[in-house]
Amino acid sequence: MKNANDKERFIELRAEGRSYADIAVALKVSKPTLIAWGKELQKDILNARTLRMDELFERYAVAKSKRVEVFGKRLEAIMTELDKRDLSDCLTPTLLTLALKYGESLKAEYEPLKLLGEEQSWLDTPNTEPEAWSA
Question: pLDDT value at position 124?
């Protein structure tokens, strides 16, 4: 059973991109054995690597959507506070600077809408690029 567990662990470590030398130390298995396993389990390693990358991309997308949400809420709060302020107030420049910085952060998160299919003419509307946005 140890051999089957070692092979599963080997697949995980190779999917992470670890070297044979590194894995040999971790699993206490000879490098030639690992090379043979690599050939035998190549499809499993590639599948594990694909699943790992998919998980990382999913995690990144979630993190990115959360950042956009946080930036948007903070920008909205700053703009609401700015609307209440008299422009001669000494703290207004600070709030204005914050609003511009949060606006830039939102622009940095912008990704153009990409839909699959042939009928996309309705997407060709002006001022959808972040350069056209203003804080």
Answer: 55
